[in-house]
Batch of 4 targets.
Target 1
Amino acid sequence: MKSISRRTTLKGIAAAGLAGAGLLPRGASAAETTWELYTYYPVATGTTGRGMIKLAEDTEKATNGQLKIKVHLGGSLPIQAASITPAVANNVVQIAGDIFAVGNIPVLGVLRLPMLVHNVEEFEAANKVALPYIEAAYDKKGVTVLGRYVYPVQTIWSRKKLTSVADLSGQKIRVTSPEQGELLKRFGGTALTMGTPDVAAALDRGVVEGVVTAASGGGYIWRDLLKYNYLFPVNFLESLMVANKEALGKLPADQAAALRKVVTESTDWITKTLSAEENDLRDKMKAAGLVVTDATAAEVNEGQKKMKEYWDEWAKAQTPETADVLAKVRKALGR
């Protein structure tokens, strides 16, 4: 009954918002289908926003206009970032970029554990182990994983002085998952989880002093509100492109195949572009006054030691399957 109530609420809220904005699909002919795409990302000019637009445009071209996708940026619909998974499951939107999903797909937390993955190659190895379980968890909710894109390593940014782990003490930092926030807590900081569209106002009002993100993620978006970037490698972060399983199943086979191909191409483009522009964007911010500080080897080692203890604690609080996935990932990484 709980899921029925949640479904009704989500559909009612989102339908009201869509109707009010004049965005509900019109009656489509047998030869044309319109899907709604929602992303947590709020800026059309950023790489992630451009990637979503590219996905929509390329899908329409690949299907000769038979499958159209309307892109809605973060904050433009009454869907919270952490509610994107159920919004897709309940067909409120048919396709979405889903990054704040750990509350709905707990096994995703394995890939979010701080200091577990040290580089891109390790992240791909960890993802290879975890992905089948992630896909199965989404499938149980009526959602299909079509692809994913990966942000560069997440570091810590702040309006207040932040040039060492000691400076984290007392600071309120926005994170994308509880797992990410645990590192901050263990260095005396306070972690707050909030969707991307809410961050700028939170920084401006002092609700948070900083964020954990990449330069090509939120760093450049919020560049006017951030003064320090401490290059402490917290973790890597991926966003899943997911679709409503039933809606996907109703597409003609050629349209579904075209969509999958376009999603793969678009997400690959986002990942490569984010990586390519990471240092350039940080350098631009540095030239404008951003104070950038590398974490010392001793600080990184201290973080890894603190987090290794946490990995064991985290596993004990999960289901046996999720704990098993973590064990397999740690074995694959040799830690």
Note: The chain has twelve helices and nine strands.
Target 2
Amino acid sequence: MLIKKIKYAIYVFMYCVKNVYFLFISSKKIIGINQSLFLITKFFCNYILTILVLNFKYKYLKNKFKSDIIKNNKFSNDWFSNNIPVWKHVFLAKSRKIKNILEIGSFEGMSAIFFLSHFQESRIDCVETFEGSDEHSVLNFLQVKNNFNFNIKSYEQRCNLYKMTSDNFFNQYKNKDTFYDLIYIDGSHFGEQVYRDAVNSFEMLNINGIIIFDDFLRKYYKKDNENVIGGVCNFIKKYDKKIKIIFVGYQIFIKKNNY
């Protein structure tokens, strides 16, 4: 038992050091040292909160979602359920009213189902090409699409699927009277595309609405600014006083201020 605790403590420490280093190196070139240090401080505090409190406090909710939703639907991968404790903390615990949701990159619909099952009055627009990107070369996206359609069937009256790129979606719909309380960006992870998705999303986000960026601390491309963190930091730099960073972890949560 003691050895397991020591191994876990070492893992926690190394994970924190690795991400703090990546966060500092990647962000300071774009947003400056002061704001970079702010992100690092926020990450450190939120990371400690997550591992010491949230993962235990919401363990039951996460396990219930896995037993009730994941086991009873068709999913080839679970890349989502580890986010549940933080999402519960940010949204549900604060009783935020979420009615209109936009999701860029829905894959098999796991996160969409979480939204719809926990926000009973919500509706969601899912933007998904079902073609993948250079990260998904080994996946069968015909099966992914079939799984999405199967999984979302129980919620189809509250879910609209837009089978197109996010650029095409925004070009067609951002001038219409549709505004969202929550936007989840998990499509292309290439920095320039993340930035475009963020800017376009901001224009369709209600005041006090929130954007979640997935894989904020993931390094896939060689150049740091080509990863999600590059797109997000450029977005932070552009909007600065118009936004508030409310949570920093593997995902980052940003709120639109009343300016």
Note: The domain at 2-256 is CATH 3.40.50.150 (Rossmann fold).
Target 3
Amino acid sequence: MKGENAELIYDALLKQLGEKYDFDKVKGGKFGAYMDVKIRNDGPVTLMIELDPNKVDKKFLKKLNKS
């Protein structure tokens, strides 16, 4: 997926998680930057999300771009 589209999805996900969960507990980094992250999992779930760029709805990307 092109970086600009992937970044839109990433930003939208962080925004929605913050709105529906807790902005103070939802953290992101600089999109596309190399990060060496050490975490201590203190919760019920860890999510790994993979998207097939050929199956991402183009209308969805346009909507994200407007928000």
Note: Helices lie at 3-22, 58-66.
Target 4
Amino acid sequence: MTQLAADRQAAALVNETIAFELNAAAAHFDRQGQPNVAQALRQQAATLLADASRLRSEAEEPTHGNTMKTNSTELRVEDEPAVPKVILDRLKNLGFSVLAAGAYACVTSLLV
């Protein structure tokens, strides 16, 4: 699982947890005789659950490393030496073949 997919799964779990809490709060407001507040909370919970479903679906979609069939190469040059290191690590995690080209540049190529 890529980091992006893991992040989407985590965000979906957070949304589901908040939706659960909103529904519990809605039940409280129903008992207190405030159905308008309860309904608003349930609508927010439904929105979060829909978003969680979308995030889970996107997390299951193939990543670029699994679907793209290309042999393109890209050169990235940065004026801050730490930035290419971050870019290299992220692209490697996404399935790209990455070559460091000095302290300020990295070359990426997707070879599937």
Note: Residues 3-31 form the longest helix (29 residues).
